[in-house]
Each structure stands twice: as structure tokens, then as C-alpha cells.
Design brief:
mainly beta; seven-stranded antiparallel beta sheet; about 10% helix; globular
Length: about 350
Amino acid sequence: MLIKINPLDTLFFRDGKPFSMGDDSWADSLFPPSPSVIYGAIRTLFLGKTNFATADKLALDEETQHINITGIYLQTEKGYGVPTPNDFAVEKSDHENATPLKTVLQPRNATTAGVISNKPLTQITYPNFVVDNEKSKGIITLLDLKDYLNAADVSMINPNAEYHVSEPKIGIGRDNLTFTTDEGKLYRVDMKRLSNKTQIVVELPDFTHDWLPFSKLGADSKLAHFEVELNKTVIEKIPFTLAPTDTMFKLYLATPAIFDLGWLPGWIKPENDYTGELGSGDHKITLQLTGTALGKPLPIGGFDLKAQQPKTMYRTVPAGSVYYFRLVAGTIEAAKELLHCKTISDQLPNEGYGLAMVGKI
């Protein structure tokens, strides 16, 4: 089923940077929000018509253990969208009317490339031209994603970075006793307003429940409308493009991932030439990580209202990151079952972290 979240006001999801009024007075916004924010909102929505509001954490976890997010997307007037892959690049041009080069960067042999990297892998990915970062980032449609995963022509891909606008808010702290301005507590927050017809879409397995139609979302308790659509899915629109004879493939992350080894999935063994095993029986595969196209680490934390304390801060691999693998043992069909359109994060995969898609190199 799908849950479509339509904000009725501006939204603010703070990133992991320290923020205090009067000191670091600018609070940056994180959008799209982290999967844990979406998961928390859906749990609140689910528990809204139950008697578990005052239950302990174990009881709450047991009541909501069947809520497993299998996909998070943005829907605009052009359809469903996902973050642009990090190996997609648009060449920067000095001429306004020139047609920019759009390409998917290919991994190269790290030994002969002459480029220094802090990752001791056999391949490295980098452009041989100046990249236009503004035009290379944003969200792409699932039709664009299909071309990308199929290693087809990407010249028609135009990442959309205008699905929201910034509406900064300036505020001042107030003394609780005198109700006057508290000196040194000026702050600004980067509120986001989604453009028309833009929604956050969450995919879950079907189950029947009497959902609340409205809930709070993000900081400042802004109201959002939640629309539940049963028997609908997005994953089926994302094809598997590899052939049975393929031995090299890429793994694209549509949501941030929390891996036990930082940028490296926990099942990969650096001491064993960056190989690792997944699955069991006929669905067991051995993969070797050959290269990456990763984004800047994204710190994601939160605040536990029940315990009244900050949650664990994770250093996540951001959405859009790409891993390149070589199939050492097993079949491509097994790789599809284990990795394609699955949440592969080592931590919190049930909350939607690490939504992965397999594609051709």
C-alpha cells in the first residue's frame, strides 16, 4: 500500500549540525526528511486510534513491529521521483545556449587513473570535465531511473531541484518569566515549502487499519494530510535490467543507509579483498566491491520523546550513492532477490533505510 503525505504548511527537518540560539544561529534544513522521521510519523498515525499512547517502549515496538517501510519516494507533477545518482554528471558550460553533456561516469582502474583516493578499491569514479553541481543534483523520475539502471541514453534526464522553495524563518527567544525578548537568542531556520502537487510517498505491505487522516510532521508541529491507498505499489515500476550472464553491476541507494562499517556494508570483509557473502542455499552469492561513487556522509539523529533524550547519531551513507560490485559466486537471479528494491541497511532497515536498486554498469 501507499501512504501519500501532503504537507499543509512549510516543513522543517533539522540536520545533524549543532544549533543553539545566539551561537550557531542558522539551523539548516534536511529535505527529503530522513526515513526515521517518516517512520515515526506513520507510527504516530497508526497508534492514533489505539490505547497505546502511554504504553512502555517494548509494548509500542511490539504493536508496530509489522510496520516495515519498503520504499520512500517523492511525487511531483511528473510522477514518482528518487534522488539523482552520484555517478550522473552534467558538464558545466560557459555558454548559456549550449547543450550540456550528460553522462553516467564509468568506474576506471584505480592504478592507472593517476588519482589518489582514500578508498583502497580496484576502481575509481571521477569526471574528466568540470561538473555543474546544480544541474547534476535533484530528483529524477522513475522513467529516468529506468534508463539509468539499463545503462541507456541519459541525455534526456533533467534532475528537478525546484520541487520545494526555501522560506527562512527568523525568531527570537523569550524570557518565560517576563515574556520579554531574551538577549542573545536570535535564530533563523530554513523552512521548506513543497511546490504544487509534490507529496512524500511511502510504500508498505498492505494491512487493514483505521488510520487518522491528519498528523504533525517535522519541527514546529506542522500539520500534514495522510492519504492511504491500498493495493498500490511503486516497486513494480522499477524493472530489473541485468541479464543472467552479467557479472558486473551497480547498486544505487534511493534512501540513506546506516552501515556497521561506516561507508562499508557490514557483510563486506576488507581483509578479504573487499568481498562478502549474502543469502543462503541456492540464493547465496559472493560479491566483491570494486568501486564507489558516494556522497558526503550525512549525520542523522533525533530526539526520543518517550525517554526525553537524544537518539543515537548515525553517520549515514546519503541517498544517491552508488556501489560497484563483481559477482564472484552465485547467480544474478539471486542478487536480484537479495538486493533489488530491498532495504539493505545494516541498521533500521524496517524504517526504510538503504533502499537499493540494481543496475547495469
